[in-house]
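Ticket 4471: requesting a sanity check on a complex prediction with flavin-adenine dinucleotide. Repro inputs:
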Amino acid sequence: MRVAVVGAGFAGIATCFEALKAGLSVTLFDQGGGASRISPGFLHPFVGKQAIPDWENYHASYHLLEVAGQAKCCGLFRLFNHPIEREGAIWWGREEIEAHLPTCTAQGGLYIPDGLRIDAKRYLDTLLKICIDKGMKIENTQVEGAHLLSQFDWVFLCTGAGAAAFKHLKITPIKGQILRLAWPQAIPPPQIPIIGAKYLVMEGDTCLVGATYEREFADPEPDIAVAKALILPYIEALYPALKGAEVLQCLAGVRASAPGHYPPIICELEPRLWVLTGLGSRGLLLHARCAQELVRKCHL
Ligand SMILES: Cc1cc2nc3c(=O)[nH]c(=O)nc-3n(C[C@H](O)[C@H](O)[C@H](O)COP(=O)(O)OP(=O)(O)OC[C@H]3O[C@@H](n4cnc5c(N)ncnc54)[C@H](O)[C@@H]3O)c2cc1C
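Returned structure tokens:
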């Protein structure tokens, strides 16, 4: 059976991996770009405002990260403004925050020892190489999708926000922007990534701060003025010493959000033409199991 996978983001490459595992012959088509490659790569199992644990998806993704040699837990600190208890996480109040994250003004949050921060580009490139070594072909080109049906038994569209081109798919494109700031030498950098409504993670002597959730946008390209207005007030409240820090870079990508944010969309658009999209802001958590489900569904 010959399969075309369109899109080389988290969803597409995981789908290639699963399809190869199932013994299918795979060709990957990709036009470049995508949200996955700009994602700062946070993975943990506690989802939504209520931090509901989703260990099943977490373990599936962790396993795929292991395959690519990228499964290294660094711990994540997730901000909360009310105390919360979760198995697999530890509540930190002011005392612990002062000890672990000096000068951070946060009042409390969950320390998640099993949290990861991966290098998304390295992960995707490694998984891509593993798939190529298993015989996958790759074409760096934009494709429309349906026309591939004449050459392939199945076509899997893993095109992220690009799937919006299919009008009957109810997905919402949500632009996300991230800023890179110079970290002020005078204050100790946080050793653990801080996540929440916004996040902050060190990269060398710079930090990445993000992200925006822009539902109304005319242009998917970086817009530094908008990014600064939406991100900096929150981050400066967390680390007042960041006020006036130099902005070195602005990155932007577009997530595809499914109705109600969850579950993602895995469906057959027309015979033999399948789509996997709507991973929203949880691409790393959801990609591995979604890819398994997609391949299993059409193999049945
Ligand atoms: C700023 C930001 C920060 C984020 N941070 C995190 C995070 O920390 N953790 C997390 O889990 N998630 C995060 N996300 C969400 C995550 O990035 C997405 O859920 C994930 O990237 C979706 O993966 P995907 O493969 O569905 O889509 P994408 O990564 O967008 O991939 C789609 C691919 O399809 C290709 N494509 C589209 N149309 C065509 C076509 N016609 N022909 C050929 N190729 C095509 C694109 O070029 C792209 O390579 C973040 C998103 C943003 C924007």
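Notes from triage: The mean pLDDT is 96. Leaving this open until the requester confirms.
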